[in-house]
User: Fold these one by one.
Assistant:
Number 1:
Amino acid sequence: MTSVEGHRRPPTAQQFVLEELRRAITTGRLRPGDPIRQEALAEEFDVSRVPLREALKTLEGEGLVTYKAHRGYCVQRLSLDDLREVCLIRELLEAEAVRRAVERLTDAGLAAAERAQAEVERAAAAGEVLEMAEANRRFHMTIFEWSELPRLVRLIRTLWDSTDAYRSLYYGEEPNRQRVIEEHRATLDLLRRRDAEAVVAVLAAHRAHAVTAIETQLAPGTVG
Amino acid sequence: MTSVEGHRRPPTAQQFVLEELRRAITTGRLRPGDPIRQEALAEEFDVSRVPLREALKTLEGEGLVTYKAHRGYCVQRLSLDDLREVCLIRELLEAEAVRRAVERLTDAGLAAAERAQAEVERAAAAGEVLEMAEANRRFHMTIFEWSELPRLVRLIRTLWDSTDAYRSLYYGEEPNRQRVIEEHRATLDLLRRRDAEAVVAVLAAHRAHAVTAIETQLAPGTVG
DNA sequence: CTCCTGTATTTTGGATCCAATATTGATAAT
DNA sequence: ATTATCAATATTGGATCCAAAATACAGGAG
């Protein structure tokens, strides 16, 4: 094996930089509100400013950074209000995706979701938080994709991207990871019974719980 | 007056190119499926390929063009299925935006919408189709913005952008223009009475009509 | 005649350099 | 002392040039 070091480097510098920028933002290395100094960042990633700027344009489209002409990019402030808003929008879109998905559900599709779930549980047991988050994402996207509404899925994916920062926060807690596994099992069960509304309810409950968890985690001393 | 020729040129080349590209796509000058030859386009717009590529990245984020590494950009095929899907998503998002908007509706807000509507009617009477489409957009966005959900409004705006091509088709027909004016008046009336669900219904009916109109316009000889 | 292969050409990706704009700081006038 | 103005600096925007990849094409083997 020559280059199987976890992540193989993307075929273009802009895609590489895009991943790195996402990581930098989600891990808090670049903090919300920070202006983005292109020269410094480009040097750090060892690329020129051109691919960096193209990656930033992509992130601008996703709402992770803001842009003003001649003043450059800033990391978008992700307030709790933003998080709540994203969850509200996800609620609307994912509910529709699930309803459509259940109508088109096949055995092969279910098997794919079960494989993703197996990977989630494996990663959880092994304590691989990052892998678990990734498999979790695959689990959900697999379901959404059954809807056969590619634009809808694309939007949902973008919304997930835009709150990656908070997601890693959530998955950092062991009880939350356990909870996710339970919810996935319940979801699979309800899917087998073609009960779309119940699945929608589970997903909604999950989002609500995640928001609450993050709220308390972020504002721990508001009462004391 | 020095540069009041309708549109003043944007402060950056990428924004200028972005507008031009949008226009080229909506007017059919660049047709769906067409690969985008950067060199040729850049020369046509009299800029280098750098700002062109940044504009394309923005359009990629909006779903108007697709991108593959080392193979470049293509104008997204906007099938009728795509149009229907965008309308479905708009239905979900705009309904929520309207419900929130009605809860927060102020007199000043209503006045702004009425001004936009006045401009719509003026442009319609003057036969200025492009101006009418623009005022129409302002009318709706004004309402959506009362929701105070900036990300939601942003998404809706992007969805509107992605179907601009079809919109100009719709507004090209006089009866459609007349219909829009009626619907706006009804909408304003219902807003004054704070009847969110009725507004949602009007908007849904409008979208349904637009889709049907475009379907018949695009496939005129399917029966004969 | 078909298919594979190697090469030429086209097209995209990226680096460097220069221009334009914004920001900062210093100086002077009120 | 405060504010306005102008110069110096930092930062972004864009053009050109070169590298890398993909595509098209020609030639030869089967």
Note: The CA atoms of residues 14 and 52 of chain A lie 6 Å apart.
Number 2:
Amino acid sequence: MTQQKTDATSDKDTGQEGGFVSDYLLYLLAAASDVASAQFHAQVRKAGLRVPEWRVLACLSDTDGAMITQLARQALAEQSRLTRIIAQMEERGLLIRRSDPADGRRVRVYLTDAGRALAAELVPQARRHEAALMEMLKGNEGAQLKPALKSLLAALDDTADQRR
Amino acid sequence: MTQQKTDATSDKDTGQEGGFVSDYLLYLLAAASDVASAQFHAQVRKAGLRVPEWRVLACLSDTDGAMITQLARQALAEQSRLTRIIAQMEERGLLIRRSDPADGRRVRVYLTDAGRALAAELVPQARRHEAALMEMLKGNEGAQLKPALKSLLAALDDTADQRR
DNA sequence: GTAAACAATATGATTTTTCATATAGTTTCG
DNA sequence: CGAAACTATATGAAAAATCATATTGTTTAC
């Protein structure tokens, strides 16, 4: 019991000897996401953005004129959170909001030149960082990672049509 | 079907047509983690725990007597956050804190019977949920997911020995 | 045309999380 | 031994995120 051993379980290890957690899919996903993102998120903050802001920027650079709700889904954030993030980014001049002429409830969001410039700086950084990660993986089973993740997402999207 | 589609980008789709984001590793990881965890996290909350509390419980059921800092790493939470979570869980009678006789700075955390009972209820639920997920993946490339994630984590742990 | 149902965004109050730093205990080294 | 450097946890203040609900605009069905 209580492996109080200040020995084998030494100070430094993270404790993943082989219990439940270290082989549990949801842990592996969360840990991988956390650890893999950490370095790049530091770059994001150096560029003066918070993580959710970077996500919005990236989404908009893909799909300009998206609506708040769309952005919330894509950027993995809550709607009310997105509303405020968009407001702050608008104040900073990164984007503008325009109500959709076809449906006044909708707010469409467009990058400004400043926003596009920032995206043009960060997206390539993201690509380079991703390339470095992929480089670490080539050869290993890690090479399968992206297809495997897409497969999981596809399977889940099919099933749980709750959120739509 | 009020398909209010202001054109190609219709209402329901998440907008991942094929831009940068939808093929970006860090997005895939974060999204997969989010979506895959959502259902189970709902069960966790029904059991009266918040997600970080569940994580602590699971880690302790693997490694009883862990210290706060260890738990923070394993449960993917900040140290100061962990301190408070542990305090709250102690108040609820799920665990107890004992200062390590060998090193008075360290606080070792042990599950109580109540804590162990709750873990004995939730861990099997987690296993079943995981099994259901794996079931969805068998056949596809998704089957490679766990090895691929482990490979990524291993590669990153090797590199960034920052946090240790 | 209008009330009911619905949909998209906004907002106030609260809870959760982080950040910086304080406190307490330990080790190193002269 | 004792000061400096270090390590583990705690804590106050601030920032971020969430929840419930309000507000505004649109569609449906009579």
Note: Helices of chain B lie at 25-46, 51-62, 68-74, 79-91, 113-137, 145-159.
